[in-house]
Each structure stands twice: as C-alpha cells, then as structure tokens.
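Why does this matter for the project? Reviewers at the last site visit asked to see concrete outputs rather than summary tables. In response, this paragraph embeds two records directly. Each consists of the residue sequence and, immediately after it, the corresponding structure tokens. Nothing has been edited or filtered.
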Amino acid sequence: MALSPKRRGMLKWLTLLSVVGLLGFGSYELFHWFTHVYEFDARIRTDLTRISSRVNGTIETIEVAEGDRVAKDDVLVTMKAGAVRQRIEALKADVAGASAEADRLTAEKQALEADLDARTATKRELVRALEVERGALIDRHELAKKKLKRTTFLVSRKLTSEQALEDDQDKVLDLAGQVSVASARVQVAKREIAEIEAERSEVMVLDEAIKIARIEARRLEAQIKEQEVDLDERVIRSPIDGVVDRIFKNVGEYVEDADELLIVHDPDNIWIEANIAEDQIRHLAVGQPVRVDLDAYPFETFRGEVIGISMVTVADLAMGGTESTAKSIKSTQKIPVRIKLLDPPPLTAPGMLVEVNIQIRDKASLP
C-alpha cells in the first residue's frame, strides 16, 4: 500500500533526525574518546595497619569489636602480665638489697676513714711532741758538752775539783743517752703512722666492694626497665585514628611475637587506584580532573583528581618484576594511577568498585 505524501514526509524527517542524532552521538563519543580516559578496573584503597604482638603471651581482654572507631593510643588488646609484675617486684627487692649493701659498706668505709684519720692525727701530734722533747735534750746535751769542756780546762789549771769534772762527764753521757732514746721514740711513732696509713688499703677494698654493689643495683634496675617495657608491650594500643577492620584472635588464645592480632585503617586516608592501559598512560598527568562513579552510589557522580602515576605495571607488582614477566605476558599491560576523591561519599570501604573518567585535554575543573 502506497504511503500518503504526508506520511512519506514524516518518515523522511524521522530518518533525517535519526541520522543527525547518530552523527551527533558518534561525534560526541569520538570527542569524548579523544579527551577522556575511561576505566572500569578501579577500587577504593587505603593503608591497612596490621597490628601484631611484640611478646609471647595469653590474650586477657579484647577491648574493641570489628567496625569500632578508635583513637590513637586507645587500648585494643591486653595480655596477661601477672608473672611479669612478680618479676619486677622481685627485682625491686634485689635492688633494695644491693643499695642497702652499698650504703652499709659506705658507712663502714666512712667509719674506718674517720678512725684512721683520728689515729694518724694523734700519732702526728705525738711525733711533734717527741721531736720537741728531743730538740730540747739535744740543746741541753750541747750545753753540757760545752760545760764539760770548760770544766776540763779548769781542772787542768787546778781551779776546780776532779769531782766536778766527773759530774759533768756523767751529765753529758746521761743527756746523750736521753737524746738517743728520744730519737728512737720519734722513729717508732713515725713507723706507727706508716702502719696506720698502710691500713688505708682496707678503704680501697671497701671502695671496690661499694662499686660492685652499685653496679649490681644498676644491672638490676636495667632488668626492671626491660620488664617494664615487656609489661607495657602487653597493652597493645592503636597507632592511628581509625576503624577496626578485622580481629584474628580471641580472649584466652596464646600468641607469639609477630602474630597478627587485628587490622585497622584510617577512613580519612583513602584513595582510588585505577589500573590504566599502557596505551593510554601517555595522556595522563598529575592534576587532571576525574569523574568518579561508585557502584555503591549508582545515582551520584563524585569529583576526583589524579595525584600519582606508578612507574611499574600491575603485572610486575604481582610477579615481583622478574625478567620472565615481560616475556611471558604479551597482552596489554596496566599501570596503577592514584586518584584523590575531592568530595568523598559518607561511607567508603577499601575494596569498593569504582569507575573513573579522567579528563585528559581540558584541565579545567569538572562541573
């Protein structure tokens, strides 16, 4: 059945509009292809803080649950520490004993030094007195010898008696003996001082004993500090403000040094990692604006910005960058690109799927 002229006209207009629409859509897609990089292979990423035990022990309490928000230094896990506290108390008692021994030896040393000083001072005074006495006797002996000489002269002249001469001779001999005795007493007193000084070696022995006692006290104090560090490490605290993602252990479990206990991440420290094909990477630069679509928010579009472009491919990251990687994988490689969310949604969890649309020509901000 032939169409009426009116219907044929409408059909022509519809066909023309369809062609124009298709051309416009194709032009837009071509323009978009030249000015944007679109990628489905993108996810929300963050730094996961894996918290491990630093000591061996049994978990006493777990203070948080998965999903809890925690602040830096909040207690997450405590471990039983009764034995450590007992060791600290025993060591403190040993420190007190070593310190008391050092104090006792110090008092003994001070008493010995005081005794030696007093005895030495007494003997020195005695030596001085004996030397004064000996000096007086020497003077008297010299006078007696002079008198004897004069008496001898007088006797030779018959001016005095023989008895006077004998008396003076006896006096000279007596004084000479007294001088000898006084000198001997001085020497004995000096030797006694030397003997007292020799006893000061006991002070040196006490000094060494005091040093040993104080070294022992410091050694025990160092052990106390080690035990206090061990005690502090049995209280495991959050190193960051964040959210508890996973808890791997239960109350009562025995854990060893480096056993992983839980995972925490900072929800404010997130970014998008988009794996961009290598044939597109030349178009990208830091600072380019990005449209972001999250599967969790299908009716919203968010703004982002390129903040980093990796220098290694995803394949190298996965396989360790060995030489065989490039030879065995001939498909197009992808390079991780980091994108910052400028207006993140209320809830973003690491691993959420994302689609990114990177504007590569016009550097103006996206509307």
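We now turn to the second protein, recorded in exactly the same manner.
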Amino acid sequence: MPRLPIDGRRALRWLALAGVVAAVAIGGCAELAQKERELVFRVVPGDASWYAGLPDGVREIDIPVAEGQHIHAWWWKADRADAPAVLYFHGSRWNLTGQLTRIRQLHDFGFSVLAIDYRGFGRSDGDVPSEQTVYEDARAGWRRFAELVPDARHRFIYGHSLGGAVAVDLAAELDRTTGAGEPEPAHGLIVESSFTTLVDVAKALSYSWLPVQWVISQKFDAIDKITQVRMPVLFVHGAADRFVPARFSQALYDAARSPKRLLVVEGATHNNSMRVGSDEYRDALWALFKLPDAPDRRARDTARH
C-alpha cells in the first residue's frame, strides 16, 4: 500500500483501486480493513496549522464512550439563554482545531455549539476510527447534548462532509426510536457538503468499472437513512465543490421527506459554503426551521457599511 495520499480525491481513488487489488491478492484480511479505515478517515494528528487557540467562552468536555474511553468536545454557549443549539459532527482528516471557522460561524449565527472529536481524532481516546465507532461516538455526544440542551425545540444536528452521513444516521436512529405522537427529539437536521454513500463517492472520483461495492466495508449509507428522518432537513452544498459534487445533496434532498430545503451556494467549494453564502445560509436556517427573532438583512448590511 503506497503512502496515504493527502488529496481527498486521490485518497478515494486509492481506496477504490487498492481495495480491489488487495482483496484479490490477500482475500480481505485484517490489515486490509485497517488500511481502508486509514484511507477513509485520513486522520491528521496534532493541531491544524492555522489553529490559534480556543476563543473565550469555549468549555472543553470529555464524554465517556465504550470500553472506558472518552471523546473530547467543545461546548460554546450562546449569549441568549433560549438560543438554538447544534450538535456538530466534522468530516475526515481534521480534528476540532481544523473546524473552528465553521463552529465560530454557527456561534455567530446565534447558536450554542457542542462539537465532538471522534475516537482517534484530536484529544479523544482510541486508534483509527471506523463507521461503527463514529456512530457510537455520535450517540454519546447526543446524550451529553440532550443534558446541555433539555428543550428539544432548541436542538439541531449538523454534519459536514462525512460528518453529514454521521448526522443522518443519528437523526434516523432518533426518529426510529421516537414513538408515534411523541415530539421530535430535535428541531432539525443540517447536512452540508455530504454524499449519498461512500461507495457512490468512490465510484464518482475513481474508476467506474471497479466493483468497489464488493470491497468497501465502510458504507456510510445516508441515502437510505435519510428516508427515515422525520425532522426538517436543510441540505447545503457548494456549487463549485470538486471533491463531493453538489448532485449528491440533490439526491439526498430528493429522497428526504418534507419539510426540507436545498441551498446550493454559487462560488462555494467543499469547505466554505457557510462563509461564501453567509446571508443565504442564515436566511435558509431561519426560514426552514422558523427560528424566533430572525435577523434582519438590512440591519446586517447597514452594520457592514
């Protein structure tokens, strides 16, 4: 197995090609599974190079998970006591120190934010994560989130990229276990720059003739799970995303139940929809989820000038 590629598109190509070759050559041993997880999550150790420290007001939390381990989290409470709050799931490669820009933007929108690092990322315990362990970590994060935000009407679930698939899995699980007639466990789901399944992304960015579905064990099958989500869903994607094309969010949107909304941000790429389309993003949040005290665009424009 060559050295892990840094570029995400190349990583998925290697995942598809190397997976097929290795499966044929060694019959799918434990080493192949380990390499597959390394290629999927591409964990970068240590702090992101642009990280300059925690903003004032951020509280660090350790949340217990399976086998006596803990995951590390940040809790950034909004100024308003009745503010909405998001449980934040990041994607592959960067830990929380690489997520601060989006976390800050959500906080600037008026949200409290609980953001977690999966096992194997940042200061969380554990080795290379797997699809199963990140789902377990998401559920542990949810339990703490529900304690911090007891009013379900103020709770939102957010996921970026691979974290979008994690968010969809959690939302589907919560809705499956909520009885008929019971209130929703969260007020809404936000899925940004995500995909239908990991197999679909690998096929789109590698070699279409490879039977990657036979060898990729980390499925992240969001397209089936989104049909089970009953809470309102906002899908956001950058129109210029060359890593995960915007058509994947369109497919998720088409499969999702109403109420739902799709926001495609012109000029935005995989990581900057919230910044490039800040006003559109904020307005879509307030319109779909009917949040109180919607910010006034004219007041924001006046403040800028």
